[in-house]
Amino acid sequence: MLRCLLSLCLLLVLSACVGKAPTVEKLPAPVKVEPLRPVNWSEVDGWAHAGPASALETFRKSCRAISKREQWQQVCAAVARVEVGDEQAARQYFEKYFQPYQVRNEDGSVSGTITGYYGPELAGSRVPTERFKYPLYGQPNDLLIIDLGEIYPELSNYRLRGRLVGNRVVPYYDRSKIDSSEQPLAGQELFWVDDPVELFFLHIQGSGRIRLPDGERVMVNYANQNGRRYRSIGKLLLERKVMTRDQMSMQNIRRWVEKNPEAGEQLLAENPSYVFFRELPAEFKSPPGALGVPLTAERSLAVDPRTIPLGAPVFLATTWPGSGEPLKRLMVAQDTGGAIKGQVRADFFWGMGDAAGQIAGRMKQDGRLWVLLPKVPPQTDKPAVAGTVLSRAEDRR
Question: Which CATH class for the 119-279 domain?
Answer without folding.
Answer: mainly beta
